[in-house]
Amino acid sequence: MDGKSWFIFVLCLMAFNASAQVYKCADGKYQSDPCDEQSQPLDLSNVGNIVESPVKALQYNDETQSAATTKAEVTDYIRKQQIKREITTLENDRKKVFAARDDKIAQLRNRGRHANNNLAGATWQQSLAQEMTAVMQQADTDVQTIDRQIESLKSQLLQQ
């Protein structure tokens, strides 16, 4: 072996066998020599180690489970808020149905005031009364449907 090859070989051996002990002194400084008689070398065996220790893997799993739990809680909260908004929308729709019913009945009553006091007027008022009944029945049906939807959403809200 020539000198250059020998030097590279020795250099490689030194790189693989390089080890030193590190001590932490009371003042927070690190050094290669013991600070006092009670100094203990620091364990640097996993410095630069890319393999996770089992403890770190467990911590990662706990964090993952915690994140999954948090995500589930957020999803549950968002769903509850959506249900509450749907309930509010349906309650507003219910009020609109009542308002539309009341407006239609008021219009029909106003039209009935113009009826003459004869057979034709009586027949017309009877048809207006039937129309008012139909308007009220339709509004009641719409309100019952909305009420069922609201109750269904409220039960979903309680189950979550």
Supply database-style keywords.
rod-shaped; mainly alpha; 2 strands; two-stranded antiparallel ribbon; 160 residues; 3 helices
Can you give a write-up of this model?
The structure is a single chain. By secondary structure, the protein is an all-alpha fold. It has a domain at 74-160. Helices cover 72% and strands 2% of the residues. The chain has three helices and two strands; from the N terminus they run αββαα. The chain has helices at residues 3-17, 54-112, 119-159; strands at 23-24, 30-31. Strands 1-2 form a two-stranded antiparallel ribbon. A hairpin with a 5-residue loop joins β1 and β2. It is rod-shaped and about 130 Å long. The two termini are 79 Å apart. The model has no long low-confidence stretch (mean pLDDT 80). It comes from Shewanella aestuarii. Residues 1-20 form the signal peptide.
Q: What Rg is obtained from the alpha carbons, in whole angstroms?
A: 42 Å
Molecular shape: rod-shaped
Unreliably modeled segments: none
Rounded mean pLDDT is 80
H/E element order: HEEHH
Instruction: Specify the number of helices.
Output: 3
Major sheet attributes: 2 strands, antiparallel
Instruction: Report helical residue fraction.
Output: over 70%
Structural class: mainly alpha
Termini separation comes to: 79 Å
